[in-house]
């Protein structure tokens, strides 16, 4: 599997991974094919995931700029076509309580407002008629051990006090009776406004909207070299080059290590793994009281997440291998299935039909950043969603378009500071390995 810390680019024209989404989304909509002729443009965007597509769409619809998107493989080949489809009002990994102590009250509120705006942006785009198999509203955050109930209570009270955001807290019995009888769940907070979608259909919908508005999406067109030509950026692809006044890097966890010095050594790509089981029978669903199709995540440092799909399969995810080389080792899928069976002992015979993984993009300070990668502001980026970017990447794409137009953005840390560099970047994977071991101990014992 492509490894962003080792490989020069993510390949060229590769098919989508063999995922449940690739099998259950119909035919991909038309794109503009491989770039064959040199172009001179105002804005070029690298990467056709949610960030790049949203930027192209908003540039065209709100600012009249028809951008060119260069995608190494095909639309949503990266995280946007591989994720779990949890639409949540959040991004990054930093709790609000930590934001408050690090950035202050006003910045914390600003970030919350921006996450709310992100959810509205996604809902408005879906409302244009994107069919993405939206499921029942609700996100359950489950305490994976009794000591985490207090953490959930504290979170509920902060959300209510600071933002007037009302969540419901269910005890173990209520949770098991009303939603699902997960034996590892001791309580749950229910956020009323999250929901599950088919993430690939969503990305394809964005692509269609961006092209209808005048953007060009070139697939099988990896940027393999990047040069400066006076005031222009020269993006070189295998068949042709693009001369652009401005460039947006929208490659998130798939950013090759030498793409641009402004983003180098500032992210840590981490594999997240998903399995999708065979469909559950009515008897199996009843044995787990699996009533809900709301999206579910636990309170572990090394989180597990799951949801019931429209055809009664369970999508179950968690951490994957550390390197691209290890990504296809079936051990990681089997481990997820074992954990699922611990939560649902009645499903001992259950098998999985699909397994795949993707690179989420971690940052040193646990928040995403939209910033410029060069001194002149001709190269912008947004990345670092830390595994929670389905909603915020779309908002970031909209903000990137505004920033390209010279418009001011909200004064919040997400938009004010560049991605911090990792100290000792060559040791990032060793640090990740250490964190995995710390997480395993913490999740079990503390
Ligand atoms: C297993 C998994 C589960 C997840 N689940 C959720 C979830 O449920 N909810 C949630 O909010 N978030 C989730 N995420 C994270 C979310 O999917 C991402 O934050 C989001 O899709 C990022 O979108 P993006 O457009 O920034 O990047 P991507 O979708 O990764 O797109 C980047 C694109 O850049 C292209 N590219 C890279 N280099 C080049 C180059 N040199 N030239 C041309 N193209 C290039 C790649 O081919 C790729 O297609 C999950 C991620 C994974 C891996």
From TrEMBL:
GO MF entries: oxidoreductase activity
Highest taxon listed in the record's lineage: Bacteria
Key words, A-Z: Oxidoreductase
One GO CC term on file: cytoplasm
Domain FAD dependent oxidoreductase span(s) in chain numbering: 42-403
Oxidoreductase listed as a keyword: yes
Record PANTHER family: FAD DEPENDENT OXIDOREDUCTASE DOMAIN-CONTAINING PROTEIN, SARCOSINE DEHYDROGENASE-RELATED
Gene3D superfamilies in the cross-refs: D-Amino Acid Oxidase, subunit A, domain 2, FAD/NAD(P)-binding domain
Name the record gives this protein: FAD-binding oxidoreductase
Pfam families linked to this entry: DAO
């Amino acid at each position: 599997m492509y490894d962003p810390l080792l490989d020069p680019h993510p390949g060229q024209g590769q098919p989508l991974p063999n995922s449940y989404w690739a099998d259950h989304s119909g035919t991909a909509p038309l794109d503009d094919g491989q770039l064959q002729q040199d172009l001179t443009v105002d804005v070029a965007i690298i990467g056709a995931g949610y960030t790049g597509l949203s930027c192209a769409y908003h540039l065209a619809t709100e600012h009249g700029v028809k951008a060119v998107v260069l995608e190494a493989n095909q639309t949503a080949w990266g995280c946007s076509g591989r994720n779990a489809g949890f639409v949540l009002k959040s991004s990054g990994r930093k709790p609000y309580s930590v934001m408050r102590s690090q950035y202050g009250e006003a910045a914390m509120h600003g970030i919350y407002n921006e996450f709310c705006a992100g959810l509205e942006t996604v809902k408005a785009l879906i409302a244009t008629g994107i069919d993405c198999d939206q499921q029942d509203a609700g996100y359950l955050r489950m305490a994976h051990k009794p000591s985490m109930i207090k953490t959930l209570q504290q979170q509920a009270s902060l959300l209510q006090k600071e933002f007037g955001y009302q969540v419901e807290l269910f005890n173990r019995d209520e949770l098991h009776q009303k939603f699902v009888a997960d034996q590892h769940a001791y309580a749950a907070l229910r956020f009323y406004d999250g929901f599950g979608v088919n993430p690939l259909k969503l990305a394809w919908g964005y692509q269609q909207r961006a092209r209808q508005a005048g953007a060009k999406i070139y697939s099988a067109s990896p940027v393999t070299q990047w040069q400066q030509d006076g005031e222009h950026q020269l993006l070189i692809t295998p068949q042709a080059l693009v001369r652009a006044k401005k460039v947006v890097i929208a490659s998130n966890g798939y950013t090759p290590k030498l793409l641009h010095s402004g983003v180098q050594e500032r992210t840590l790509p981490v594999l997240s793994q998903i399995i999708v089981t065979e469909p559950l029978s009515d008897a199996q669903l009843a044995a787990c009281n699996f009533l809900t199709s709301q999206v579910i995540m636990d309170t572990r440092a090394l989180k597990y997440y799951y949801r019931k799909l429209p055809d009664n399969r369970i999508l179950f995810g968690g951490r994957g291998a550390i390197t691209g080389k290890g990504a296809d080792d079936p051990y990681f899928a089997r481990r997820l299935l074992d954990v699922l069976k611990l939560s649902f002992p009645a499903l001992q015979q259950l098998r999985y039909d699909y397994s795949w993984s993707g690179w989420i993009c971690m940052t040193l300070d646990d928040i995403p950043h939209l910033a410029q990668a060069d001194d002149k502001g001709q190269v912008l980026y947004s990345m670092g969603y830390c595994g929670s970017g389905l909603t915020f990447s779309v908002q970031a794409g909209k903000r990137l378009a505004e920033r390209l137009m010279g418009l001011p953005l909200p004064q919040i840390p997400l938009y004010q500071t560049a991605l911090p560099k990792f100290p000792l970047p060559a040791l990032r994977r060793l640090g990740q390995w250490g964190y995995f071991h710390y997480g395993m101990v913490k999740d079990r014992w503390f």
